[in-house]
Amino acid sequence: MSLSELSKYELTTARLRLLPCNHNHLDGLNAINSDPEVMRYLHGVQTRAETKAMIDRVQCRWAELGYSWWTIFEPSSGQIVGAGCIQNLRRGGGTSSEVDLTCPLEIGWRVRRDRWRQGIANEAARAMAEFAFTRLRAEVLYAVCQPENKASMGVMVKLGMHYRGIEDWYGMKVTTYALSASNGERLVRYPSPSLHRHRGTLGTGAAPICASAV
Fold first, then answer.
1. Three-state secondary structure of 14-26
2. Cα–Cα–Cα angle for 177, 179, 182, rounded to 5 degrees
3. ∠ CA 161-60-131 to the nearest 5 degrees?
4. Nearest 5°: CA angle at 202, between 142 and 139?
């Protein structure tokens, strides 16, 4: 899928621009993925080669499924400040190019460490949730994190998600929240300021927040 074709999946909010991950974003994404503090609850740091392989997988999923990982840009600075996703949960651990479409959709995010506690995860998550409920017609959206990851749980609560309990995902026991489509409609009806989808060209180029693997 070309960059121009991917541009239809671009999202914008009052402060952020979410673009489907591509190789122009490699440096900024690897700076986040190689930070031990950001990746504390996310299966460990990634090398540059591993981030590149992740982008390869993500691009295939955008082409095949029409959803995957976005790179989160801060237009005011032009910098990459995070990443977020709508993807299918996975029962097993590790990384895999295989997608289990029988697993529910999840929302996930990670934020660059110097942008923690600025509401970026919540703002990006609202845009991604809107995408899931309006574009993908999702019936329910899950979010998971390590039980120790209080920052991630805080974002889930702010989104209006309800606690399901400790469940088995990604080959481990994780805290699990969910948001139904009926409750998600409130996010769409009363979104954050300037929350909307934007078509355009793709640009170039984190309390440790969700347990999502790519």
1. CCCEEEECCHHHH
2. 160
3. 30
4. 20
Hey, what are 128's tokens?
């991604």
Give pTM, 2 decimals. 0.86
CB environment 59-90: b (16+ within 10 A), e (fewer): bebbeeeebbbbbbbbeeeeebbbbbbbbbbb
Evaluate whether 38 touches 110 at the Cβ level (below 8 Å): yes
Note the pLDDT tens digit of each residue in 89-144: 999 876 666 899 999 999 999 999 999 999 999 999 999 999 999 999 999 999 99
Q: What is the pLDDT of residues 155-166, one digit of tens each?
A: 999 999 999 999
Q: Yes or no: say if 180 and 140 are a contact pair by the CB < 8 Å rule.
A: yes
Structure tokens at 130: 């809107």
